[in-house]
């Protein structure tokens, strides 16, 4: 018994000595000491960005930790974010892909999870020049407006039902329907859910694929970070292969439907699937890239819009002064004889400040998707070795008391005093990222979020359920890459416009 114990202790001490030597000689960022084999895997709390913000108070604005043997570096202030996303942008533009991400991205043949190189440049050019142009976004605006007005009608019906005595609604259900219908119509050119919220068979399959993907992707797999343990997770690999086959079959059926429709009518729609299929030869895209790009749209657009609007509405019911000020602007610009349309948004400056303030406090992706070093670089005076994973804590940037006055206060007027850019040019505020990996669908997301908020606030006054105090609203986040409110927001809407303006006319 003594020999194994001595041997184990010796191995542990050798490991610690090696890590100490490596950290001191390599001048890595400081951080918590890793355990043998697992690193700091079990030191990290589920809501990672909050955990990292707390570690920044202990170790400084840049620190490192290990997942297995994989070195991770986190930056938590604007100066360091600029070093990562601008000064070292090209050398830190690769992606770290887990096995689930390898599958869904077709081994990095999409855009979001592709390494930086000729393929990424080509696909990024396709997105900028073809998919997310102002012309295409304008052509798709009727879909967005159709879904938002359908949401308003459903809210109106449900809050005015005689059986709904308290008029209390769970807002997330309505926001999720808009996000789901909007992104599937934009991407696949199909509405899988009817006006009553019933999903057809194909839509159920889509939701199941997304749900199963999140389940697989969120399952801890030490084999991702300790290569010699991968054999232990054989069942997980088989589940991934089955998920990949299911996803590909679903997507190819829809691609084939659109190909047949174009041959019959000779007409190409503005939807992304038609655009990609008609541009496939011009941009030399293999099928894996088309499929990967379509799923980039689904995964990036399905949750983030609903998350952003729910957080904004939570802040607005907690801050009636701000809600009233938005409604005064809407009444002044729109009046009470018609509803909002997207062309009105440019005139709603205070509403735009509300969107910014919500994104500052509640970025839907609080930890920027991980960058990976393709070369050795220096950040904050520390060495970042090739192969390291680098994270930017966007949540910390938006709450830095050295930058933002009263950072925890929801105060849209701060953007009247200084109109801080949120499109990647100001490193204090990066809800959509910056540099080579900035979100290409940023303008689409901003348009839809602002439109949803404009309709909700123009057509209803919002309050908390009877007996619920402002301080009772749970403003904590759920764990995950994207962060829903931990407790779904329950609210009471009261219509404020003539009744005929709540009837949705389907397009």
UniProtKB/TrEMBL annotation:
<comment type="similarity">
    <text>Belongs to the cytochrome P450 family.</text>
</comment>
<keyword id="KW-1133">Transmembrane helix</keyword>
<dbReference type="Pfam" id="PF00067">
    <property type="entry name" value="p450"/>
</dbReference>
<protein>
    <submittedName>
        <fullName>Cytochrome P450 98A2-like</fullName>
    </submittedName>
</protein>
<dbReference type="GO" id="GO:0004497">
    <property type="term" value="F:monooxygenase activity"/>
</dbReference>
<keyword id="KW-0560">Oxidoreductase</keyword>
<feature type="binding site" description="axial binding residue">
    <location>
        <position position="439"/>
    </location>
    <ligand>
        <name>heme</name>
    </ligand>
</feature>
<keyword id="KW-0472">Membrane</keyword>
<dbReference type="GO" id="GO:0016020">
    <property type="term" value="C:membrane"/>
</dbReference>
<dbReference type="InterPro" id="IPR001128">
    <property type="entry name" value="Cyt_P450"/>
</dbReference>
<dbReference type="InterPro" id="IPR002401">
    <property type="entry name" value="Cyt_P450_E_grp-I"/>
</dbReference>
<keyword id="KW-0812">Transmembrane</keyword>
<keyword id="KW-0408">Iron</keyword>
<dbReference type="GO" id="GO:0020037">
    <property type="term" value="F:heme binding"/>
</dbReference>
<keyword id="KW-0479">Metal-binding</keyword>
<dbReference type="InterPro" id="IPR036396">
    <property type="entry name" value="Cyt_P450_sf"/>
</dbReference>
<dbReference type="GO" id="GO:0005506">
    <property type="term" value="F:iron ion binding"/>
</dbReference>
<keyword id="KW-0349">Heme</keyword>
<dbReference type="GO" id="GO:0016705">
    <property type="term" value="F:oxidoreductase activity, acting on paired donors, with incorporation or reduction of molecular oxygen"/>
</dbReference>
<dbReference type="InterPro" id="IPR017972">
    <property type="entry name" value="Cyt_P450_CS"/>
</dbReference>
<keyword id="KW-0503">Monooxygenase</keyword>
């Amino acid at each position: 018994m003594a020999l194994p114990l001595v041997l184990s202790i010796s191995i542990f001490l050798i490991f610690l000595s090696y890590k100490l030597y490596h950290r001191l000689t390599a001048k890595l960022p400081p951080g918590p000491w890793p355990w043998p084999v697992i690193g700091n895997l079990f030191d990290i709390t589920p809501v990672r960005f909050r955990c990292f913000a707390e570690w920044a108070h202990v170790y400084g604005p840049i620190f490192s930790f290990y997942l297995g043997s994989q070195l991770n570096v986190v930056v938590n202030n604007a100066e360091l974010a600029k070093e990562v996303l601008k000064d070292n942008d090209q050398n830190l533009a690769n992606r770290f892909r887990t096995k689930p991400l390898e599958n869904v991205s077709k081994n990095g043949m999409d855009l979001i999870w592709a390494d930086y190189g000729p393929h990424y440049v080509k696909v990024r050019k396709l997105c900028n020049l073809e998919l997310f142009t102002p012309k295409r976004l304008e052509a798709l605006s009727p879909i967005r407006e159709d879904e938002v007005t359908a949401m308003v009608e459903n809210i109106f019906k449900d809050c005015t039902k005689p059986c709904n005595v308290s008029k209390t609604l769970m807002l997330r259900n309505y926001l999720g329907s808009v996000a789901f219908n909007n992104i599937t119509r934009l991407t696949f050119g199909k509405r899988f859910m009817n006006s009553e919220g019933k999903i057809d068979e194909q839509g159920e399959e889509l939701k199941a694929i997304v749900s199963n993907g999140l389940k697989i992707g969120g399952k801890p797999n030490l084999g991702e970070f300790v290569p010699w343990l991968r054999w232990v997770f054989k069942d997980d690999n088989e589940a991934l292969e089955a998920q990949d086959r299911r996803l590909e079959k679903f997507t190819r059926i829809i691609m084939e439907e659109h190909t047949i429709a174009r041959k019959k009518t000779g007409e190409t729609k503005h939807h992304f699937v038609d655009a990609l299929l008609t541009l496939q030869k011009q941009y030399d895209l293999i099928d894996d890239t088309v499929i990967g790009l379509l799923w980039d749209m689904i995964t990036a657009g399905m949750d983030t819009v609903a998350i952003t609007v729910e957080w904004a509405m939570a802040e607005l019911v907690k801050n009636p002064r701000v809600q009233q000020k938005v409604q005064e602007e809407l009444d002044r610009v729109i009046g009470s004889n018609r509803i909002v349309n997207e062309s009105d948004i440019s005139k709603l400056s205070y509403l735009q400040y509300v969107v910014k303030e919500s994104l500052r406090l509640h970025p839907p992706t609080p930890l920027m998707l991980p960058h990976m070093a393709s070369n050795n670089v220096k950040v904050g005076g520390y060495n970042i070795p090739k192969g390291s994973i680098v994270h930017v804590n966007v949540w910390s940037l938006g709450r830095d008391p050295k930058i933002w006055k009263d950072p925890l206060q929801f105060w849209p007027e701060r953007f009247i005093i200084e109109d801080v850019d949120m499109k990647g040019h100001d490193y204090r505020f990066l809800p959509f990222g910056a540099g080579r990996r900035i979100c290409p669908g940023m303008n689409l997301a901003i348009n839809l979020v602002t439109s949803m908020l404009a309709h909700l606030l123009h057509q209803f006054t919002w309050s908390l359920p009877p007996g619920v105090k402002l301080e009772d609203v749970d403003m904590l986040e759920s764990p995950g890459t994207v962060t829903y409110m931990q407790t779904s927001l329950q609210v009471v809407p009261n219509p404020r416009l003539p009744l005929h303006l709540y009837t949705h006319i389907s397009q």
